[in-house]
Every structure is written in structure tokens, then in C-alpha cells.
Amino acid sequence: MSETSGQRPQKRGGEHQIIHVPNTLRAKVGAGTGIDPGLVKAAEKVVEDMAVDFRAWATEDLRSLAKLVADTPDHAGDLPGHFNRIFDLAHDLKGQGGTFGYSLLTAIADNLCRFIERLARPGRDHVPVIEAHVDALRAILHYDVKGLNDPTGREIMTGLQILVEKAHARG
After folding, report:
1. Is the alpha carbon torsion for 58, 149, 117, 115 positive or negative?
2. Distance (Å, rounded) from C-alpha 137 to C-alpha 141?
3. Contact (CB, 8 A) for 150 and 105
4. What is the C-alpha separation between 104 and 146, in angstroms, rounded?
5. Residue pair 133/108 in contact by the 8 Å Cβ criterion
6. CA 32 to CA 35: how far, in whole Å?
7. Which of 70, 50, 59 has its CA nearest to residue 137?
8. C-beta neighbour count of 102 within 10 angstroms
9. CB-CB contact of 94 with 113 (8 Å)
10. pTM listed for this prediction
């Protein structure tokens, strides 16, 4: 039976057939010459220049996040939507932190995002957990703590994870 006959190959007993599919990716994107190292260097320079302003941006995002958390009682009728807005800001901080070398900020913002995602029914009793994350993020930016290897940072992460697990255990 030919592969070009339009029929599917059939297996008999313990037999098998290997079908080699051609890789047509190069034909679709072109041969090219690879990535221009000059462009990579220029992009790295742009990110490096932006990193100088990151703490100011992140601090402003954190102010917005803290305001959302403080406004939670005003959104009693739409807590899921309100928590989604908190999630969105935390998610932005998470992504930006990783881009600019703040791995601890990214880890804490990610922990907050996972906490909110796992909530079956967001309630005001979950606000203290969110506030603890906001306080931790604020401290990280204030003291310019970047890496996950900082002993205090590890202690903060452990404490937040315990807090999250206790909150989920309560429901």
C-alpha cells in the first residue's frame, strides 16, 4: 500500500509503520540568516534602560493595588469582579518583576495570583491575605530586594504560603 494512494496505512498484528512527515517550517518562514546579534544587544539595552524606571512604575502599580484592596468593602455586590481586578494588577507586577530582575517580587505576586485563582467564593475575609502580599511587595520595592536567595525574602515567601494555605483550608 502506498502512502500516496490516499489510503491510510494499516497495522497487522504486532506490525507498525513509521511515517516520516517532512518539516515544512523553513519553507513557511524562509531560510533567513538567524537572529541579528546587534538587534539582540539593542533590545537588551532598551530593557536595561527601562529597568531604571521599574521601581517607580511598580510602586505606582502597587499604590493602585493597595487602593483596590482598601476599596474592597465598597464592592460587596461584585467581589468576584473586584478580585479579578486585583488579580490583573498582581499579574502585571509578576510579569514586570521577572523582566527586570525582581524574582522575589515575581514570586510573591504569583503567590497572590494563585491565591485569588483558587478562591471558590471570594469574600472580605480573604482581604487580610491579600493585604499581607501587598505589604510584602511594598517592602521588597522599598528595600530593593531582587533575588529569591535573600534569607528574609525566603522567610516572607514561606509565611505568605502558610497564610494562603490556612485561608484555603478555612474555605
Report:
1. negative
2. 6
3. no
4. 6
5. yes
6. 9
7. 59
8. 26
9. yes
10. 0.73
What DSSP string describes 111-167? HHHHHHHH-SS--GGGHHHHHHHHHHHHHHHHHT---TT-HHHHHHHHHHHHHHHHH
- Under a CB-based contact definition with an 8 Å cutoff, are residues 141 and 58 in contact? yes
Cell numbers given for 113: 495570583
Residue-by-residue DSSP string for 22-57: P--HHHHH-------HHHHHHHHHHHHHHHHHHHHH
Residue 100: count other Cβ atoms within 10 Å of its Cβ.
21
The grid coordinates of residue 132 equal: 499581607
CA 108 to chain centre: 10
140 contacts 104 by C-beta, under 8 angstroms: yes
**Side chain identity at residue 80, one-letter code:** P
Helices first, then strands: H and E counts in the chain: 6, 0
CB neighbour list of residue 79: distance below 8 Å, 6 or more residues apart: 72, 122, 123, 124
Alpha-carbon dihedral sign for residues 155, 83, 54, 97: positive
Among 59-63, 133-137, 159-163, 166-170, the least confident range: 166-170
Query: What pLDDT digit, counting tens, does each position of 44-99 carry?
Result: 888 788 877 888 999 999 999 999 999 988 877 888 999 999 999 999 999 999 88
Distance, CA of 157 to chain centre? 16
